[in-house]
Amino acid sequence: MASLPGQKTSLTLGTCYCPPNQTQEGNQHLENEVKEASKKERVVIMGDFNYPHIDWVNSCSTYEREITFLDMLNNLQKMLCVCLSKCDDYFTIYPFFLFLLISFFPAVLVTVDQETAHPRLSVSENQRRVTGGEKCQNLPFTPERFDKMSCVLGCEKFTAGRHYWDVEIEGTRAGWAVGVARESVRRKGYMKFSPEEGIWAIQYLCTSEMPFFQLSASQTKLSLSKPLSRVQVSLDYKAGLVAFSDPCSGRSIFTFSFACFSGERVCPFFWVPQICTLNCC
């Protein structure tokens, strides 16, 4: 234990054992050392403590330092084992509680905003079904409409609360993407489905090599045993949580845990290429 530079130093002296052959000169020498120590800015008090101060280490023999060091390593190993066991519990239990939490989100009846739909997309009369086509329709290119990417936004806008909706997938020859996007997401030109663009989504791509899923966050491929026929999107605006799961099996697919919406309104997001239909359930 040591005092910091500039702080007042105090010493507590207890009863000391003096050998019978201790001379008066030796006692005087010891008293002088104590007086000198009390004048110093930093005083080290020897005692029973777990982690030694460097001054204490320097004053000990090599053997004592080795024993103390081994004790410290042993304590550190025990602490590390406890931490790792807690981490294992966290990563084992967390997905279960996350799924349990999402199951209490209120369902949202999502509809598609026709004013944002790319001209190749056909929207049903009830605005809950969108199909990708080969030819563009004769529609005005308003600022709200996507002009290069076959995307469309949902009519619902969220600034708070917890919500979820299901998307049913039909025909996956080219792929699809579902998620959420900021209302201010760029509508003109080509873009990546990434949080930097204001999009949090999972994307299914059917390439010449093999079909695969990937995240919009880092273009990371997801390993799924079979194609999805239905995806559940869950949103917790305040917590910055965007989660995807398979409602048919109850299995979690992926979760964006720290989505930054910057206080903007967010809405459902869909990418619907040719020969693909998405139904909002």
From TrEMBL:
<keyword id="KW-0528">Neurotoxin</keyword>
<dbReference type="InterPro" id="IPR006574">
    <property type="entry name" value="PRY"/>
</dbReference>
<protein>
    <recommendedName>
        <fullName>B30.2/SPRY domain-containing protein</fullName>
    </recommendedName>
</protein>
<dbReference type="InterPro" id="IPR001870">
    <property type="entry name" value="B30.2/SPRY"/>
</dbReference>
<keyword id="KW-0472">Membrane</keyword>
<comment type="function">
    <text>Neurotoxin that produces dose-dependent hypolocomotion and hyperalgesia in mice. May directly act on the central nervous system, as it is 6500-fold more potent when administered intracerebroventricularly than intraperitoneal.</text>
</comment>
<feature type="transmembrane region" description="Helical">
    <location>
        <begin position="91"/>
        <end position="112"/>
    </location>
</feature>
<comment type="similarity">
    <text>Belongs to the ohanin/vespryn family.</text>
</comment>
<feature type="domain" description="B30.2/SPRY">
    <location>
        <begin position="89"/>
        <end position="281"/>
    </location>
</feature>
<dbReference type="InterPro" id="IPR043136">
    <property type="entry name" value="B30.2/SPRY_sf"/>
</dbReference>
<dbReference type="InterPro" id="IPR003877">
    <property type="entry name" value="SPRY_dom"/>
</dbReference>
<dbReference type="InterPro" id="IPR050143">
    <property type="entry name" value="TRIM/RBCC"/>
</dbReference>
<keyword id="KW-1133">Transmembrane helix</keyword>
<dbReference type="InterPro" id="IPR005135">
    <property type="entry name" value="Endo/exonuclease/phosphatase"/>
</dbReference>
<dbReference type="InterPro" id="IPR013320">
    <property type="entry name" value="ConA-like_dom_sf"/>
</dbReference>
<keyword id="KW-0800">Toxin</keyword>
<dbReference type="InterPro" id="IPR036691">
    <property type="entry name" value="Endo/exonu/phosph_ase_sf"/>
</dbReference>
<keyword id="KW-0812">Transmembrane</keyword>
<dbReference type="GO" id="GO:0003824">
    <property type="term" value="F:catalytic activity"/>
</dbReference>
<dbReference type="InterPro" id="IPR003879">
    <property type="entry name" value="Butyrophylin_SPRY"/>
</dbReference>
<dbReference type="Pfam" id="PF14529">
    <property type="entry name" value="Exo_endo_phos_2"/>
</dbReference>
<dbReference type="Pfam" id="PF13765">
    <property type="entry name" value="PRY"/>
</dbReference>
<dbReference type="Pfam" id="PF00622">
    <property type="entry name" value="SPRY"/>
</dbReference>
